[in-house]
Amino acid sequence: MNRKKLIKTTAVIIMFVMVFTLSSHAAVKAAYPAWQAGTAYRVGDIVSYGDSNYQCIQAHTALTGWEPPIVPALWSLYSGGTPQTAATPVFSPGGGTYTTAQNVTITCSTAGSTIRYTLNGSEPTASSAAYTGAIAISSTTTVKAKAFLSGMNDSQTAAATYTINKNDTTAAPAFSPAGGTYYGNVDVTLTCATGNATIRYTTDGTTPGAASKVYTGAIAVTAATTIKAYATASNLKDSAVVSSTYTISKNQTGLPAHILTGYWQNFDNGAKCLKLSDVPQTYNIIAVAFAEATANAGEVTFRLDSSLASKLGGYTEQQFINDIAAAKTKGQKVIISVGGETGSISVNSAASAANFANSVYSLMTKYGFDGVDIDLENGINAAYMTSALRQLSSKAGSGLIITMAPQTLDMQSVGSGYFQVALNIKDILTVVNTQYYNSGTMLGQDGKVYAQGSVDFLTALAAIQLENGLRPDQVGLGLPASTRAAGGGYVAPSVVNSALECLTKGTGGGSYKPPRTYPALRGAMTWSINWDATNNYDFANTVSAKLNTLP
Asked: CA–CA separation, 523 vs 512, rounded Å?
């Protein structure tokens, strides 16, 4: 009898433990927001998916097909405790249709939280504008806001659309593209949301009036110009006068229209060891890989690898400096590359941004480098890297060369840190050579999935940058020089040429057809010159010959 009671009591205890465990697991899981495509995730963000929780290990904007269980490069299983989530911000007044401008306030019930918001429909991030007071909304606008507080999960995004119907006034003209600095000439179009409106404009800085020129087609801007415009329509008040200033930047780098970039390895990894003087003239830009981090945040330094120097018969620092000078007399540019696969350089504060700019400029002065290559493969802070490169530009002047070598994932969306930096420094950026290798499958410009190692992968992914803000002369194709130079994604140089032909002339290529041609496409890059040398310079000889035939 006692034994039966003991068995019954034990069963009850086991059932209680199971119920408590399951309910506790559900409570933990429910505390994290569900993973959702289209959301911008930061390193450290935690989401729930299926029966598990996952922690973000690489910042990205989620896409369908990148669910946490199938992309271990982006997510790792998380079994930690349960942080709280900041309260969702609240708008006042709420979204809706109004006949007058509105002052919108945003509040959050989580004490100490920072509210960040956007007005262009994009997802708020930790680098978005911080809310400090009422936001004046005078035209139709979608406001999105999110609350942030250290130690807590970010809040859900709050969104509200304010439609301002001022029925008595003509809508102001809109400029496309927006004012800014452009390389080469730009055609500016003016549009008005009010039907049958007439737009009048000036290009000499004066205020337009009834006698000013009527807009009938694109305005060709070939020099620094300020366009002022207003719109009129029957039975409505005239719109406000709006203006936009355009600056035309001329090429100060001395580089040709189409260029070949290659990396010179300051280490021995089985590829052919080279002195800088061994690099053939087919390479227009030589990126020295790599600068190293110091103990000071953001600061970098450089030294010749001793084992490499020994293999080259005692290659000295002075010989290296002399070789840089000799390459420049031949028309080549030599830059210092920062980062690489194992690089640990971090620019995430005002102090580290200043350290970065000062130390890179010091290396340029010491060695004669013409600029810098950004090859950070472990995350990038868009705001502070932008600041660092702006500071470097102010020190080095208009001849500064800035190149970037992001991974394919980093250039999938304009919301990524790398893409943001490229757009932020568009007026001083030389070229972005995206690494189209070691990538697996990725989404192309048309929303379809493409596998690395194909011409469609190159053209469809390059078109994302070409159709989302970068000038064609700022886009290059980065590929490995041989099968040994990368873990995957190698294509024969002839395939690179086919992609160049497709993007610049609309011929060749594969099944993907870009929305237009880009004759000014800048060129190609390879990792590395040393691996190319091991392969008898097949990449440089084949691709440089094609670049010479492009428009």
From this structure: 19
Q: Which of 448, 445, 543, 446 is nearest to 491 (CA)?
A: 543
CA separation for the pair 504, 510 (Å, rounded): 14
**Triad 146, 150, 155: Cα angle to 5°:** 25
Query: Does the pLDDT value for residue 29 go beyond 50?
Result: no
> For the whole prediction, is pTM greater than 0.85?
no
Query: Which structure tokens are listed for 189?
Result: 């179009």
What's the rounded Cα separation, in Å, for the pair 477 and 479? 7
Contact in structure between 338 and 375 (CB atoms under 8 Å): yes
3-state secondary structure of 353: helix
- Spatial neighbors of 7 by CB under 8 A, at least 6 apart, are none
CA distances from 351 to 127, 385, 421, 529 (A): 17, 11, 18, 35
Tell me the two tokens of residue 206.
């004066």
What DSSP letter does each residue of 50-105 carry, written as one string? TTEEEEESS-EE--TT--GGG-TTTEEEE------BPPPPEEESPSEEESS-EEEE
Please give the full DSSP string across 149-172, using - where no structure is assigned: -TTSBPPPPEEEEEEE--TTBPPP
What the block records as the tokens of 363 is 């290396």
For helices 417-424 and 382-396, angle between their N-to-C axes, nearest 10 degrees: 30
Among the ranges given (43-57, 71-85, 386-400, 441-455), the one the predictor scored with the smallest mean pLDDT: 71-85
351, 356, 361, 362: CA torsion to nearest 10:
90
Helix ranges (H only) for 105-242 are none
**Separation of alpha carbons 88 and 109, rounded Å:** 8
Over residues 259-311, the pLDDT tens digits come to 999 999 999 999 999 999 999 999 999 999 999 999 999 999 999 999 999 99
Return d(Cα 39, Cα 159) in angstroms, integer: 14
* 245 HSE (CA, 13 A, CB side): 5
State pLDDT tens for residues 226-260: 999 999 998 888 999 999 998 776 556 788 889 99
Residue 407 DSSP symbol: B
Residue 308, pLDDT score: 96
What b/e sequence results for 234-258 when a residue is b if at least 16 CB atoms lie within 10 Å of its CB, and e otherwise? eebebbebbbbebeeeeeebebeeb
